[in-house]
Structure formats: structure tokens, C-alpha cells
Write a structure and sequence with these properties.
344 residues, mainly beta, six-stranded antiparallel beta sheet, 3% helix, globular
Amino acid sequence: MISRLKLAIAAMLTLVGCSGGSGDMDMAEKEPITEPEFLATVASASSPVSGLHASVSNGFVHTNPNVSGVNTVFANGHVVTTISRDGSSDITLDTKDSARGLRPVSLVHLPGRSGGYGYVFEGTPSSATGALIAVDWSDSDPSDYLAAGYWAHVQQGGTTTIEYGAFVDGPELNPSSPPALRTAGTASYQGTAGGLYRAYFGSDTGPLQGSRETGTFVGVATLSANFDDGTISGCLGCAVPIQVSGYQFDPSGAANDLDKTLTYQLHMDATSIDRTSGTFEGSSARFTGGEIPIVRTEGEWTGQFSTRLNGGDPRLVAGTAAGEGTTAGGSTITFLGAFAGGKQ
């Protein structure tokens, strides 16, 4: 089954001064970009959150005009995600090619469903793409599925360009056929969140100063819908600490494996629900917690309720979020990813 993108965030950032090599170099003779090289580029790039803007229109959300759509195909327990780009070749991501195998996970924490996520990486001599893709489906009806994830794409040439994006997609995310939302009461949702993680260690981190971390984050998303006032709020990392994996790069550029737990949370502050479409978008996503206090934070989030009901309420909610926090010493933490949650 092919379903059109329901929610996505995408942003293109151009890095100035990164040479792609001599003009007479035969790209076929170059070795493919490795995963550590790819993540080192992402770690040193401009912020994937700064200047990011999400908007909801006809169930299709994007900020980069170069990204014209995201389609998913789910079959035989794996999902293929195709990112269509105007003037550029498509980016295709397949969880069957997961670099570390497909790990079991429930996106929406609902009974009678199965799920998994995998980290996909592909490098060529001139480009590389890394992505975390998750899928959740009904055990009795595989066409009843939800896919979510993020990607980062590096393209080398005269300059180096980096594209970031996050998405959720599935047949029950359809703003043209929104659910009937009640006007009183509340509903709680819980599921999984995952995406791109970046950190920079500033002057308040002692011997780590100047180091960078890049990889993926995975954790629990909790959301609360208040139908009395027509709002929804949420948090990534409040119920269970966020786990991150990838690489840490010291100031010299040397890479070390990264696998740790974060004590920061990304709060998605209450935002209004558009009852005509079952969608919402918030201008405030902010970091709290951690060993070093956050003094400046920005971010936003967007999402949509399922068209299918459970006990009179949408059975799930899904969306994307981006946030960045900065400490007094210039350390930063960045999330860009997707979340989903089933009604509890």
C-alpha cells in the first residue's frame, strides 16, 4: 500500500567553504563516504533547527521546496520510504537494509500490533544518507500501519549541502477526513519518539569542551489532549529517559562510539487543535532538565489525530518535533524527529 505523506519537516542547509575536491578527480575512484565521516559532517554543520518552520496545509507539511513529497510502502514486515525532491534524485530508505538490524519497538503502545525500527545508512563517493525509520502495524491487517522517522542527507561537490527531515505517514492520517473530536474531557496518549540527536560541548563541560556528538535518539512520547479547551501538549523523555547512540568526536576529530542516557526532556507546550482537520502545530518546544541548565531554547512541533476512533476518541496521534537548547557556556543539544502515541 502506498500512502501520501501526512506530516513532515524538511530543511536544506548549505555549508559554505567545504570543498568537494579537485575538479579533475574521478569520483568513481573515491571511496564511499563512511558512517563516521557522514556523522562528523552532520556534527559540524549549521543547526538543523535554526530557521526551521513547519506548517500544516491539506495534510501535507514541509518547509523545503526542494522536498516535494514522502511516500511509504509497507510489505513483508519492512517499510520503504521514498523522499521526492524537485530537481534532484529521490532518496530511498528501506528498513530491510537496516545497518544494525530491525529492532522490535511499538510506535503507538496499543495491543494487537507489532513494530520495529532500524537505522539505515548508505554512502557513495559523493553523497551519504542516514536515517532512523520505524513502522507499526496491525497483526490482523498489515495494511493498517504507521511509519515514522528522520533522515539526513549529505551531498558533496563544489560545496557540501545537508538536508534534514522528519516524517510520519499512514493511511489513518488524513486531514481531508478528520475524526469527530468531542468538546469535553481529556485523553492521554503514549508511544515512541525517535530522530536526529546532536550535541556540542561548550565551556561549561570541563574536559569535554570542543567535543561533538551526533546520532539518533529513541524514547517514550507522552501526550495529553484537553478537549475542554481544545489543546494538546506533550513531552519526549518525561516518562522514560531518552537513549542516544552514534559517535562522539573529540576536538581533534577522532571518533568514539556513543551509547548513553540523557537527562534532558523536550517539552511540547500546549497548542490549539484544529477541529476541522484534526491537526495541530505549536510554536513552543523547549528543553528542560539535564546536569547543566538550559538558558535559551527554541523549537516547534506539529501533528495529527487518527481518523479512527477508540472509545469515542482518536485511537492515536502522531507528528514531528524539532528543538534546540543552549547552556550559559555555549553547549547545545538538538532533536529533530517524529513521535506517535496510542490512546491509553
